[in-house]
Amino acid sequence: MKETVVVVYEKPEIYDPIFIEGLPGIGLVGKLAAEHLIQELNAKKFAELYSPHFMHQVLIKKDSTVDLMKNEFYYWKSPDEEHRDLIIITGDTQVPPTDSYGHFEVVGKMLDFVEQFGTREIITMGGYQVPELQGEPKVLASFTDLETKERYKQILGDMVVFREDEGGAIVGAAGLLLGIGKLRGMRGACFLGESLGYIVDAKAAKSVLTVVAKVLNLEIDMTALEERAKETEEILRKVQEMQRAMFEQQLPQPSHEEEDRGYL
């Protein structure tokens, strides 16, 4: 394999689909959100993407067989005119961060593929690492252009924080799909959920998917994701307790003389 390839199993009859990306990244936020959306919509897998830019390994399955690492395309055909058809991509991996050429090549292949179905709009999902969390994870939004921003703003209102950190970056597929897509005349948005980043963050995934469902005008049952979010909260609580304990251990201990002295 010398270049990225897309293996197609079915050519669905879909019209002007929105392309939704949820690949592994910070807290696996985008991947969790995409997988839950696929499950709830009963979306159907119709293609797989393989690339020599992915890590040089295979993944072992429960039945002792192996598979190359891959990304998977799913489609959902709307049953009515009130909703848009969807193409959703998720998978095992992204290109390693040190391989810039690989990122551009893989994202280019993704866009080549979805363009065949008339895709003009992209939504990417992921995590945004923060040092600490207070309350529900915020969802940060970025857009390809001001017209798209205003259109989404009318739908979402104050559900998201519109990023204004000039010079900030969105790395990986979540950013490049919008950047390269923009050069091809596509429009879109990126939604990133706040996450500590070092745990599988279902709570942030739920926040992001709630926003995306609003954009798509879909009612998504979040029960399974909410259960995982509760597990996330419990893990976070334990981590915070451990951090507090470690911090207290690092504080200087009073000497025996200071303990005996008491208050003057």
Automatic annotation (TrEMBL):
The keyword Nucleotidyltransferase does not apply. InterPro entries: MJ1210-like (IPR004426), Proteasome_assmbl_chaperone_2 (IPR019151), PSMG2_sf (IPR038389). Keywords: Coiled coil. Residues 215-245 form a coiled coil. This is Proteasome assembly chaperone family protein. It comes from Thermococcus barophilus (strain DSM 11836 / MP). Pfam families: PAC2.
